[in-house]
Sequence to fold (180 residues):
Amino acid sequence: MSNTAEEVGARLIAFLPNLRRFAISLCGSRDLADDLVQAACERALANAGRFEPGTRFDAWMFRILRNLWIDQVRRQKTAGVRVDIVEQPDIVGASGERDAEARLILKTVAEAIAQLPDEHREVLLLVCVEELSYREAADILGIPIGTVMSRLARARKNLAEAAGITMPAARSVAVKDAEE
Fold:
């Protein structure tokens, strides 16, 4: 450490209360002010060689602190509003487990769709993904609407089996059981 850095350090210790008071007046928060004072002290010690003996130490330190504050304000403007996560207990984070499970299911379904016969896959994608009506899908494929409906039913059944999705009991069986 040079003589200049030692001198600046000694003067800095004596000047800390004034520096902290000025920092609080700038930012209005004791916590932010303490961070600002610490940054100003670090900068002053790192640049002790730039302090010219015989000039006003207080003016030099106030300028360093003020410039740091201006830089911080500019950063905040570009970064947007900053909110402490501790103050937001209702924030729900993404569940890594849920995301991984969803990706696995999606992969399984995509593989099952790829295994479908072309004519079933075409109908499934047109009706379920592209949200076309049965009539529109029939017109595009040049087949009767009844064929679209039967291919779609078979595609859904094969897709559910391939993906390991259990289908509920047939509706007619449930109605028959309800009548008995």
Q: What stands out?
A: The two ends are 96 Å apart (CA to CA).
